[in-house]
Amino acid sequence: MKLDSNNHSVFLLHYHLVLIVKYRRNAFDDNMSDYAKDMFSRLSENYNITLVEWGHDVDHVHILFKAHPNTEMTKFINAYKSASSRLIKKEFPKVKQKLWRQMFWSRSFAPPHDEPAL
Question: Over 70: is that where the pLDDT of 32 sits?
Answer without folding.
Answer: yes
